[in-house]
Amino acid sequence: MKTLSFPYRIDQTGRTAMAGPDDELRELIEQLLFVAPGERVMRPTFGSGAAQLVFAPASEQMAATAQHLVQGALQAWLGDRILVEGIDVQAEESVLTVTLRYRTRITAETRSVVVRGQV
Known about the structure:
This is IraD/Gp25-like domain-containing protein. This protein has about 120 residues and is of the alpha+beta class. It has helices at about 20-35, 60-80; strands at about 5, 20, 80-90, 95-105, 110-119.
């Protein structure tokens, strides 16, 4: 089953771009990681808030906090779709990079995604 691609865009044929199951899951992860809680009107708890940590001093505590925030958000919002196997968070200047290894619950395939966000 295909869903609307995020962000919304037009494909090469002039129609609304659609995403397959793998792309949809990657796009959901990206949205979840870089949306701050309270940013979505009808879903005030959606998001991880990890992007705000870019402004914190780089340290082991900041990395641990980011991993905790990301793990909690993934469990709360996508726990029925993925099983997190590992998270690596790096913040350099104004770029937050999250490397996520996960297994899809439906197919049990292991996947990896690298998400970079600039704030």
